[in-house]
Design brief:
Blueprint (H helix, E strand, L loop, with lengths): L1 H26 L2 E5 L3 E11 L3 H14 L3 E6 L4 E7 L7 E12 L2 E10 L7 H14 L3
Antiparallel strand pairs: 1-2, 2-6, 3-4, 4-5, 5-6
Helix pairs in contact: 1-3, 2-3
């Protein structure tokens, strides 16, 4: 009984930390521009208890699982650049850039930027969900 109590406590703590990261992700979300001029979505969140090397690895894997094509990455600098082809975009692609920064030995800060050219649209809610899922992956 005691062992299961510790497991539940650890799970609850992890859930609170992931929730905290997700709330930061939503709170720090910004959208600039518009349909005709192009739109840039950004967010960031601090992830406690995960060093930047591990966060980078997990976020890289999540980005690939989500269907992004990695165009370049620099593990030492903590940078992942990716893109997706735009539906009906006549060869256009939408770039995604992620930076994983070391805050301390066991804490990281993650920045995500997603840009759309003029005439291309993405639902804001879907972008927020994707950003927060990516940041949350650092904890899993």
């Amino acid at each position: 009984m005691l062992k299961s109590k510790y497991i539940l406590s650890a799970f609850a703590l992890l859930s609170v930390q992931v929730f905290s990261d997700t709330e930061q992700c939503k709170t720090n979300f910004t959208k600039e521009g518009g349909f005709l001029s192009g739109t840039t979505f950004k967010t960031w969140a601090e992830v406690e208890g995960v060093d930047s090397t591990e966060a980078f690895k997990k976020i890289y894997l999540q980005t690939v699982k989500d269907g992004w094509k990695i165009t370049s990455s620099d593990k030492e600098m903590g940078i992942i650049s990716a893109a997706q082809d735009v539906s009906y975009g006549n060869g256009k692609s939408a770039p995604l850039n992620i930076v994983v920064e070391k805050l301390s030995a066991n804490d990281s800060k993650i920045f995500i930027t997603y840009s759309l050219s003029g005439g291309v649209k993405s639902p804001e809610k879907a972008v927020i969900e994707s950003f927060c899922k990516t940041i949350g992956a650092a904890k899993l």
